[in-house]
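Saturday, quiet lab. Running sequence design on the structure tokens for the scaffold JK sent over.
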């Protein structure tokens, strides 16, 4: 073990299948991502309590006693010094389960079988989102946006956020069922991510947005340029760190995403207001 990873792991893998844990931990290790593992949700909660450095939880949904959804529920009500992002993996994907996980602020929904590279990409994006959230919390001094909404906060804004997360889940289902990248559209992925972030009161940096697009950085940056030229997004320096750039929807971009979301909701008979 000498000369390997010197920093404390920031990722926790949770699955009741030890073979899956070993394969995924080793695969991520080769990609430079250190992780801890837990075979049960109870063990995962204990590790999260003892290791404050853990920032991303990658959990299976189907587990005995306490499943992945309940694990996320328990993590959501626990106050931590730093934000935590969740990635859900399952061999039995369904829209209901995906929406349930995304309502608990899961940032990705992956279907088995999956590769270490696929999980590593999701983890990289999760790290970027955690960084964005931590920066926002530092600015406002308020709890992170991933805190569970209070009953009186369950407004049309939250319904829109939940619906947008369902659209993200559908994108994950598409990539799981079809060849990954076959229907890639970086600009649309970024607009969807920006709309979901805005509905969740979460800032998005250029780095995070590039990762969310699933495209190479140079391609993603060009698409951000295209979106800015079209008047749909704007870039502003972070007030706390001028080296960091935050991307926002413009009034035009916000109005068009709102029109899209409302039209899709109407087709499905969903009331968002």
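Result came back. Writing it out in full:
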């Amino acid at each position: 073990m000498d000369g390997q990873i010197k920093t404390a792991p920031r990722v926790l893998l949770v699955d009741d299948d030890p073979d899956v844990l070993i394969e995924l931990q080793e695969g991520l290790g080769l990609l430079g991502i250190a992780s801890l593992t837990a075979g049960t949700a109870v063990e995962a909660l204990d590790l999260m309590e003892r290791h404050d450095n853990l920032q991303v939880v990658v959990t299976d949904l189907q587990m005995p006693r306490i499943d992945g959804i309940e694990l996320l529920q328990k993590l959501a009500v626990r106050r931590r010094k730093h934000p935590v992002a969740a990635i859900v993996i399952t061999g039995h994907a369904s829209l209901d389960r995906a929406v349930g996980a995304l309502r608990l602020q899961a940032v990705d929904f992956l279907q088995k079988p999956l590769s270490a590279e696929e999980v590593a990409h999701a983890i990289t994006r999760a790290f970027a989102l955690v960084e964005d959230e931590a920066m926002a919390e530092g600015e406002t001094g308020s709890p992170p946006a991933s805190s569970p909404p209070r009953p009186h906060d369950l407004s049309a804004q939250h319904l829109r956020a939940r619906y947008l997360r369902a659209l993200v889940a559908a994108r994950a289902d598409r990539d799981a069922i079809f060849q990954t990248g076959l229907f890639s559209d970086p600009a649309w992925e970024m607009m969807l991510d920006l709309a979901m972030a805005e509905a969740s009161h979460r800032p998005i940096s250029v780095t995070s947005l590039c990762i969310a697009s699933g495209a190479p950085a140079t391609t993603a940056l060009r698409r951000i340029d295209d979106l800015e030229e079209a008047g749909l997004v704007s870039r502003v320096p972070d007030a706390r760190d001028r080296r960091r750039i935050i991307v926002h929807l413009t009034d035009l971009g916000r109005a068009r995403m709102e029109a899209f979301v409302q039209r899709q909701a109407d087709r499905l008979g969903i009331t968002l207001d």
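Notes for JK: Residues 16 and 39 are 5 Å apart (CA to CA). The beta strands are 11-14, 35-38, 56-60, 85-90, 106-111, 204-205, 233-237, 245-249. Ask whether to fix the surface positions before the next round.
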